[in-house]
Write a structure and sequence with these properties.
Layout lengths: L9 H5 L3 E5 L5 H10 L3 E6 L6 H6 L1 H19 L14 H25 L3 E11 L2 E6 L3 E5 L2 E4 L3 E3 L12 E2 L1 H6 L6 E5 L3 H13 L2 E5 L11 H14 L2 E3 L3 E8 L2 E7 L6 E5 L1 E4 L3 E3 L32 E3 L10 H15 L13 E3 L4 E6 L2 H7 L4 E6 L4 H5 L6 E6 L6 E8 L2 H13 L4 H5 L10 H10 L16
Parallel strand pairs: 1-2, 1-6, 2-3, 6-17, 8-15, 9-10, 9-15, 10-11
Antiparallel strand pairs: 3-4, 4-5, 7-16, 12-13, 13-14, 18-19, 19-22, 20-21, 21-22
The structure holds nicotinamide-adenine-dinucleotide.
């Protein structure tokens, strides 16, 4: 956590420290902005025309714009059960792409302006380290040398494309290509039932594709607790054509104008299926190649992550690393926070990266969000926990929305009754998790949440109700066992 700021060292007050930030995603631009606000002389380098990185150009933001649009279609369809029937939607793909692009342009242009207001020098080009204090940046028309006192590597990650699935065909997409929304394929195979597969699978299914998801592990979203995944899986089984678990896509080949996939599982022995298009979403890999890191003392793991300590320092004293390249989880908000810590640490401030919980949100419908300890982590690590779960079927608000498929769950430390983790599945879970993160960081006990008045009728009440249920004092649900509030 960031601790109280101390003034920068005197030398810095006379001569601003020169900081070069390589990569202008949510880690890099946030670090650059913070450093400029603290008086550093900052150069921000990225090959895109404006700051924003994967998140804004081809990740979080465009995917959320599309998910919002398709959610509107689903809501309109659901309204027929409430006596309001809309005609089938007319989907103008150019219009939808145009709207998504306007969202991206507005945000990236805004970041560019915020950088200029802070007097940050923005270099559009690819940077490579030539020594521990120099970067060479190849811009459109020249090779520029940038010397720095400190640098931050924030070059993010790239979609993983395993050899077996690598096919030089426009019909095989990674997440970047899928977000282009070139067309709505009749049939779409999604390899990987993780964040990207399920978010983009939902978009394409609502737009009209027959979606098949193939996931090699025993369940969708392997990192999430099963009871949180359950409401989502139930809904997706209705929306998607097929969800194949314990199944691997062993090979892809072009065939008859589409893609033929070879599927392997204990039941399916190299069965072949044909699809119009394929989206490969099997994870991301850190973008640490071709950065010239070999000209510095920076250490890179066999998986390509830059090794950092709790202040985001690499083994090279002048170089820090943040975001996806510095390790899991590969989440924009983790990168942003790390950027702040790195800048403060290089200024000698007592700042370390030590969060109690980093929220994870899967923006499907229903959404799934969690932070802190999960039930499965506790079981794996042999940590004794108690669980209290409030089913959304008992919430007035969810019923008014026609969406009572969800659950809010608290992971509790026995004895102290401190909340160690919170998981939520349901509409708006991604917003609700904000309260959970504050609760965790504040060391909240179940009783604190139980005794905090939540507005009625809201989804946030489910957090209070889950806490009340721990003592069997939820007005709307009766637990089997009860405990005394301490
Ligand atoms: P992921 O790790 O979430 O999921 C990949 C899935 O693919 C896993 O479930 C894995 O078991 C499966 N898989 C791997 N190889 C396979 C094969 N050959 N056949 C079938 N299944 C296979 O990765 P992702 O969905 O590509 O997303 C990458 C990262 O991007 C995420 O880990 C996350 O950090 C980030 N992301 C976050 C959000 C968000 O915050 N909402 C959204 C999108 C992406």
């Amino acid at each position: 956590m960031t601790t109280e700021a101390t003034p920068p060292p005197p030398s810095q007050a006379q001569q601003p420290l020169r900081l070069a930030v390589l990569g202008a995603g949510p880690g890099g631009y946030a670090a650059a902005f913070h450093a400029a606000d603290l008086g550093m002389n900052v150069t921000l380098i990225d090959d895109a025309p404006q700051p924003g990185g994967v998140c804004l150009y081809r990740g979080c933001i465009p995917s959320k714009a599309l998910l919002h649009a398709t959610h509107t279609i689903e809501e309109a369809r659901a309204a027929s059960a409430w006596g309001i029937t809309f005609a089938d939607p007319q989907i103008d793909l150019d219009g939808l792409r145009g709207w998504k692009q306007r969202v991206v342009d507005r945000l990236t242009r805004g970041l560019g302006a915020l950088g200029r207001q802070r007097k940050i020098r923005y270099l559009q080009g690819r940077g490579q380290f030539t020594d521990p204090h120099t970067l060479h940046v190849r811009t459109a028309d020249e090779l520029t040398s940038v010397t720095f006192d400190y640098a931050i590597v924030a070059t993010g990650s790239l979609p993983a494309m395993p050899q077996a699935l690598r096919l030089d065909s426009p019909l095989v997409m990674d997440s970047t290509a899928a977000l282009e929304l070139e067309d709505v394929p009749e049939t779409l195979l999604i390899v990987g039932g993780g964040y990207i597969g399920l978010e983009l699978g939902s978009v394409y299914a609502t737009l009209g594709s027959r979606v098949t998801v193939v996931e090699m592990t025993t369940g969708l979203l392997p990192g999430a607790d099963r009871d949180l995944v359950e409401p989502l899986e139930k809904r997706l089984r209705g929306q998607f054509h097929e969800i194949l678990l314990n199944t691997r896509v062993a090979a892809l080949e072009e065939h008859a104008g589409g893609i033929r996939a070879t599927l392997a599982s204990t039941e399916l022995d190299n069965v072949q299926r044909d699809f119009s298009k394929v989206l490969v979403a099997v994870g991301r890999v850190p973008n640490s190649r071709n950065l010239g890191l070999e000209h510095t003392g920076v250490q890179v793991t066999s998986r390509g992550f830059v090794t950092v300590d709790h202040m985001l320092r690499t083994a090279e004293p002048s170089i820090y690393a943040i975001g996806d390249i510095a390790g899991e989880p590969m989440l924009a908000h983790k990168a942003t926070h790390e950027g702040r810590v790195a800048v403060e640490a290089m200024l000698g401030q007592p700042s370390i990266f030590d969060p109690t919980g980093i929220p994870a949100v899967v923006f499907t419908d229903p959404e799934i969000a969690w932070c802190g300890l999960t039930e499965s982590q506790a079981r794996e690590r042999g940590i004794e926990i108690e669980i209290t779960k409030f089913p959304w079927a008992a919430s007035g608000r969810t019923i008014t929305m026609g969406r009572n498929d969800g659950v809010t769950k608290l992971i509790v430390e026995p004895g102290t009754q401190r909340i160690l983790g919170i998981g939520i599945a349901g509409t708006g879970a991604g917003e609700l998790i904000g309260e959970a993160v504050v609760a965790l960081e504040m060391g909240t006990r179940v009783q604190d949440l139980h005794l905090t008045i939540h507005a009625h009728p809201t989804l946030s009440e489910t957090l209070m109700e889950a806490a009340s249920l721990y003592y069997n004092q939820s007005p709307h649900y009766i637990a089997r066992t009860s405990r005394a509030a301490e």
